[in-house]
Amino acid sequence: MSKLDPKKQASAREILDAAAKAFSERGYAATSIDDVADLLGATKGRIYHYFRTKGDLFVGIHHQALEWALEAVGPVAERDDIGPRDKLHAMVQQHAMHLMNRHTYMGPAQHQIEMGLASEGRHKEEAIAQIRAMRRQFEEYYVEVIKDGIAAGVFRDADANILVKAVLGTVNWMHVWFQADGPRDSAAERERIAAEIAEYSVRGVIA
Predict the structure, then answer these.
(1) 182-196 burial string, b = 16+ CB within 10 Å, else e?
(2) Which tens digit of pLDDT belongs to each residue from 143-199?
(3) Who is most buried in 7, 32, 44, 201, counting CB within 10 A?
(4) Nearest Cα to 60, choosing from 98, 30, 22, 101?
């Protein structure tokens, strides 16, 4: 999508927004191109102009969600002016805020099993390989800060990869329980939730 001009990028994003909402409400298997077109208020032809299959939409959602996740966490992970504890706290907080602020993309982007369904019958190996590489990069940001914290004696001496799985599991599980636009949802409430999850995550690994 980044190869498109700005106007076409905006149009493709509108389609992905509608698809993400449809997938998050119905699931990948139960969603059709017609469902996406209905949410978009457009014809299927507009969708097919940018995305040839439902699988292309699903892959596009994953790619966009990961781009945003890397943008949210990467700048914090690459800072060298804060220690491991504060860095991990800030990374988790930014990660949680990303998941809440992009909530319609959140659920579909967690369903890795359906990635196989989305690739059936099409040659999407390169796109899916890129998504997996982005996932590895995202996780590696966490692995590095945990390793740094262990080396500094700030985090307990344990398998960094296992600690990262536990932290990411805590944050990513938000797609199950977070309710956007609920009675208590607000910018301040999202900040509070993100701060609580960040503090919980740090306490789970602290020495």
Answers:
(1) eeeeeeeebeebbee
(2) 999 999 999 999 999 999 999 999 999 999 988 899 888 889 999 999 999 999 999
(3) 201
(4) 22
DSSP 8-state code for residue 123: -
> What is the C-alpha separation between 74 and 80, in angstroms, rounded?
12
Kindly give, in sequence order, each residue whose CB lies less than 8 Å from that of residue 1, ignoring residues fewer than 6 positions away.
Answer: 9, 12, 13, 16, 50, 60, 63, 64
Boundaries of every domain in the chain: 54-205
Collapse the DSSP code of 29 into the 3-class scheme (helix H, G, I; strand E, B; otherwise coil) and give the result.
Answer: coil
Please report the beta strands in 35-129, taking only residues with DSSP state E, as ranges in sequence order.
Answer: none
Task: Count the neighbouring beta carbons within 10 Å of the beta carbon of residue 176.
Answer: 9
- Side chain identity at 174, as an amino acid letter? M
Residue that the structure tokens 């017609």 belong to: 34
The predicted structure's pLDDT at residue 116: 56
Structure tokens at 114: 């359906």
Residues 6+ apart with CB under 8 A from 149: 83, 84, 85, 88, 155, 205
> In terms of CATH architecture, what is 54-205?
Orthogonal Bundle (1.10)
Q: Is-contact 76 85, C-beta < 8 A? A: no
**3-class DSSP state for residue 112?**
coil
